[in-house]
Amino acid sequence: MIITANLAVLFVALLHVYFLVLEMFLWEKPAGLKAFGQSREKAAITKVLAANQGLYNGFIAAGLLLGVIQGAAGYDFKVYFLSCVIIAGIYGAMTASRKILFIQAAPGIIALLLVIYSGQ
Q: In this predicted model, what pLDDT tens digit does every residue of 66-107 receive, in sequence order?
């Protein structure tokens, strides 16, 4: 069960690395425009804000990876950062797009439940 929980945490971390890349490096490129459904003009205006969001996603990914690397001692890191993912996902679903609930919050909830159930 610990392996399954850690794989779920790693999956969430990889999602946030992907979000980092989209928001920091691909925001104005076709992949970023498509992912966020926006025009080139709007992307140009919001580029700096998106890069800031991407940086925060990187911090979340780093915290989750640290939790996995630390093994049992990383339990609190995993719980804390997965909780952040869930809260951000719920907020994003309420304020930006409902699909964020499924793309971000749901994997975070599943990973958190697996971590809690495994005790690590």
A: 999 999 999 999 999 999 999 999 999 999 999 999 999 999
pTM of the predicted structure, to 2 decimals: 0.93
Distance of CA 16 to the CA centre of its chain: 4
User: For residue 98, which phi and psi values (nearest 5 degrees)?
Assistant: -60, -30
Range 78-86, long-range pairs (CB < 8 A, 24+ positions): 78/5, 78/9, 78/111, 78/112, 78/115, 79/112, 79/115, 79/116, 82/9, 82/12, 82/108, 82/111, 82/112, 82/115, 83/112, 84/60, 85/12, 85/16, 85/60, 86/112
Which amino acid type is present at position 27?
W
